[in-house]
Write a structure and sequence with these properties.
The complex is a heterodimer of chains A (143) and B (446). Chain A is mainly α. Chain A contains 6 helices and 2 strands. The longest helix of chain A is centred in the first third of the chain and has 27 residues. Chain B is mainly alpha-helical. Helix content of chain B is 76%, strand content 0%. Classes of the chains: A mainly alpha (143), B mainly alpha (446). The interface between A and B is large, with 65 and 71 residues. Bound molecules: protoporphyrin IX containing FE (HEM) (2 copies) and fe (ii) ion (FE2). The site of one protoporphyrin IX containing FE has 26 residues of chain B, from α6, α10 and α12.
Chain lengths: 143, 446
């Protein structure tokens, strides 16, 4: 029968080994050669867009890359799906946007802010998502 | 209770009760918004309600874990807490940081990162607070007469939980990196170190309630937390499938996260077997209900419902849908909410000297809340599956699908009402116990 000492060795050993593999895989998958996100295209405008995305907690209603809340549409391919003009009018609308009854917060962003967010969405839209992009947007091309 | 300083625990539990009730209030705000009744939109839009709902959940659970530690560590290490005054200071600052964050969420002051919405300046206060807590617990443990496995596993869980908060505080320009390290906090908490906390509390409760030999219980505790890390660390990969990182995670995450339910199966078998084996019949049957209930419901919510969407081929369709919300509710409830309610049910009569543990209201609390949340899980689940089918298979528009599934949120609200009545019974029982008193001190014979 298993002794307490063996049980502890199993705990410590298993933890150490899987932890080291995890760190190794993290380093590997975040290395430059494995980049799937076109990180070189992250311009200052994209970063400003990301900051707006965060400081307004858009993720509290929407998902992006499949993460966030389930109250409002997934935005990963939104520019491709709707076009820039549509997205801009949603962002700049002074009254709550609610084409189907469910309300979005009326942020009333300025033109520049809307452009920053669109740049952010465009960068997101070009990430290689291992096939998920095809599921979330009917327009996404088969690869 | 056996040590005067254990009384501190009571006030952490009281804070938990208060925040739990608030959490549910914001749950209803979201539930009603989803059936078109969003009259509060101007003041509490959905994203505010959601951030408050999930953050209050995390804070009341943490407060419950801290209370559990303040109760368990003195008793296990046979030593009074090193400083009661500091413990109360820590409680008050925890409450202040919590309230400040919640108020901020109503004023558009937050970081839009799911579960980690607390703004950076407050993050630092959280760190100071948790360091104080850990200092008190670890000093008490190491100055104590004995260091049991139960106490060590519990403290290790708390320490690692604090360390893992830090990756969530790094700033990145890339959304992909942001998401990658957000999971070091969120996933490695609930499918890693929090399971150590749960295991520690569970083991303490089983020792007290069943009378089975400590050596036997603690041996199995090691096996369970061993399984947790063995599967859970690399299991993080199940969040990396579709966020824009290497495909290798589809294999690694798929295999290891599929093994994660084993740890929860272990908890359930462990608890039920120790109960069967035990000769002692502890009079606090209510605490036993919650303890066994937690072990079993965590297996259902985290183990079975987690497994249901963890394979990459399934997750590609369910990722970021209401299926996730279904699993999130039952997993948090079974594993962490119920274990906190179990330790409260066990310790409250000991702290206050009022042995109200065979009350009808106590049993109603248990059954109503559990039946209610199972109903909520089904409502979220049906809504989620229909959403996946219509939106991701049939390619229907998001909002059209949402209107199709609205009816399931009526069901959700009905079940949530049942659930909330159960919780209110629990809170009423908590209040009926009154406050802790030195008269409840037992003679030590351990
Ligand atoms: C008590 C333990 C657990 C809790 C509290 C829990 C809770 C949660 C929560 C809240 C989320 C949503 C997170 C977010 O999107 O930010 C989530 C996602 C997920 N969980 Fe768990 N979970 C637990 C255990 C498990 C286990 C054991 C498995 C697998 C066997 C699992 C599989 C998943 C998967 C695959 C997702 C991602 C869903 C998606 O792609 O949208 N979980 N969990
Ligand atoms: C009165 C009862 C409750 C109601 C009506 C309720 C309702 C909701 C709603 C509508 C959401 C948002 C889903 C979305 O994004 O569209 C949510 C999220 C969440 N709730 Fe609750 N809830 C209740 C109780 C609870 C309890 C007791 C727990 C934990 C034990 C809990 C944990 C969560 C979690 C973890 C999330 C985030 C899920 C995710 O992102 O996947 N809720 N809740
Ligand atoms: Fe996970």
């Amino acid at each position: 029968m298993l002794s307490k000492k063996q049980a502890r060795a199993f705990f410590l050993g298993g933890t150490l080994v899987t932890f080291l593999i995890f760190i190794g895989l993290t380093v590997y998958s975040l290395s430059k050669s494995q980049d799937q996100a076109h990180s070189e295209n992250i311009t200052e405008q994209v970063v400003r867009g990301k900051m707006l995305w965060e400081s307004n907690n858009c993720m509290g209603c929407h998902t992006i890359l499949g993460e966030g809340a389930y109250y409002a549409p997934e935005l990963t391919k939104v520019v491709e799906r709707r076009g820039e003009g549509y997205v801009k009018s949603v962002l700049m609308s002074p009254v709550p946007w609610a084409p189907h009854g469910r309300k979005m917060v009326a942020y009333g962003f300025s033109e520049d802010e809307a452009k920053d967010l669109i740049a952010f969405f465009k960068w997101i839209g070009n990430i290689d998502l291992n096939g998920f992009d095809r599921v979330v947007s009917p327009l996404a091309k088969e690869k | 209770m056996k040590y005067k300083s254990q009384k501190v625990a009571y006030w952490f539990f009281a804070l938990s009760m208060l925040l739990l009730v608030l959490q549910l209030t914001y749950g209803f705000i979201m539930g009603f918004a989803r059936i078109g009744m969003d009259g509060l939109h101007e003041f509490i839009p959905f994203n505010t309600a959601r951030a408050v709902h999930t953050n209050l959940l995390v804070v009341w659970l943490l407060s419950g874990f801290m209370g559990a530690a303040y109760y368990i560590i003195p008793e296990e290490s046979q030593n009074e807490l090193v400083s009661v005054k500091l413990a109360y200071t820590q409680l008050i600052t925890l409450a202040i940081v919590g309230v400040a964050a919640i108020v901020g969420y109503h004023l558009n002051y937050w970081e839009g990162r799911k579960f980690l919405e607390i703004p950076r300046p407050l993050d630092f206060l959280v760190v100071v607070n948790v360091l104080t807590f850990l200092g008190l617990i670890l000093l008490t443990l190491f100055k104590g007469k004995r260091k049991t496995t139960t106490a060590l596993v519990l403290s290790m869980g708390l320490l690692f939980a604090a360390l893992l908060y830090l990756p969530g505080m790094i700033t990145f320009d890339s959304q992909v990196y942001d998401s990658f390290f957000r999971w070091w906090v969120v996933h490695l908490w609930v499918e890693g170190v929090w399971e150590l906390i749960m295991g520690g509390i569970l083991s303490f409760l089983l020792i007290k309630l069943t009378g089975v030999d400590r050596e036997v219980i603690e041996k199995w505790l090691y096996v369970i937390v061993g399984l947790t890390f063995l599967s859970g660390i690399l299991g993080t990969g199940h969040h990396y499938y579709y966020i824009g990182v290497n495909k290798i995670w589809l294999i690694v995450g798929g295999i290891f996260s599929s093994l994660e339910p084993l740890a929860f199966l272990g908890m359930a078998l462990f608890a039920v077997n120790m109960y069967r084996k035990g000769e002692k019949k502890h009079p606090n049957t209510l605490a036993l209900y919650w303890t066994l209930g937690s072990a079993i419901m965590s297996f259902v919510g985290a183990g079975l419902l987690g497994f249901a969407h963890t394979i990459p081929q399934t997750n590609i369709y369910t990722h970021g849908t209401l299926v996730t919300a279904m699993h999130g509710h039952l997993a948090f409830w079974g594993a962490y909410a119920m274990i906190v309610l179990a330790i409260i049910s066990y310790s409250l009569p000991n702290l206050t000297g009022r042995k109200l543990f065979n009350s009808t209201s106590g049993r109603l609390a248990f059954w109503l809340s559990n039946i209610g949340i199972l109903g909520m899980t089904v409502a979220f689940g049906v809504a989620g599956v229909v959403q996946v089918y219509l939106e991701r298979k049939m390619k229907m528009d998001f909002m059209e699908v949402q209107n199709e599934i609205q009816i399931h949120f009526v069901v959700l609200i009905i079940c949530a009402t049942l659930f909330t009545i159960g919780i209110l019974y629990y809170v009423a029982d908590f209040i009926k116990h009154g406050t802790p008193t030195d008269e409840a001190l037992e003679t030590r014979n351990n």
